C-alpha cells in the first residue's frame, strides 16, 4: 500500500524525506493506519503504536522494508506514563494552556450513552468519550 492511498502526503514539511517518528493517533489501531505510519517515516524513523489493536488484527510487513530502512516499531501503553509524576505535570500544562487536552476528547456523553459510546470506540469512530455526570 502506498502512503498516499491512506490520506498522508509523504514528507509533508520534511522536504520529502519522511518523518523521524510516526505515531498513529487512533484508539483503535487498524492495519491501514499502521501501514500509513510505516510508509511516512524517514530512514531509521520510528513507528509508535499508541492505540490497542484488536486481538485478531494482523499487519503484513515486508521484512526487507524494515531491514532496508532501519528504525523501529514500538508501542506505548497509556503513554508509558508514571501517574505520580506525569499527571500533575499534565494538569499544570493544561491549566497554562500548554497541553491541548480538549483535542483528545471526541465527545462528552451522559451516563445513559455509555453503551453506544463503547460501540463507537470499538468501531474506531471516536478517540475518547468523556462521561459528564450532570447531563
From TrEMBL:
Residues 1-24 are annotated as: Disordered. It comes from Modestobacter marinus. This is Zn-dependent alcohol dehydrogenase. InterPro entries: GroES-like_sf, NAD(P)-bd_dom_sf. Transmembrane segments: none annotated.
Amino acid at each position: 500500500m502506498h502512503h498516499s492511498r491512506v490520506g498522508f502526503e509523504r514528507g509533508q514539511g520534511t522536504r520529502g524525506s519522511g518523518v523521524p517518528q510516526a505515531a498513529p493517533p487512533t484508539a483503535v489501531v487498524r492495519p491501514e493506519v499502521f501501514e500509513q505510519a510505516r510508509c511516512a517515516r524517514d530512514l531509521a524513523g520510528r513507528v509508535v503504536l499508541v492505540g490497542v489493536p484488536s486481538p485478531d488484527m494482523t499487519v503484513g510487513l515486508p521484512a526487507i522494508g524494515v531491514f532496508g530502512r532501519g528504525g523501529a516499531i514500538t508501542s506505548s501503553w497509556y503513554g508509558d506514563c508514571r501517574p505520580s509524576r506525569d499527571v500533575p505535570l499534565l494538569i499544570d500544562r493544561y491549566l497554562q494552556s500548554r497541553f491541548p487536552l480538549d483535542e483528545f476528547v471526541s465527545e462528552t456523553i451522559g451516563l445513559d450513552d455509555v453503551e453506544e459510546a463503547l460501540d463507537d470506540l470499538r468501531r474506531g469512530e471516536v478517540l475518547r468519550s468523556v462521561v459528564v455526570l450532570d447531563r
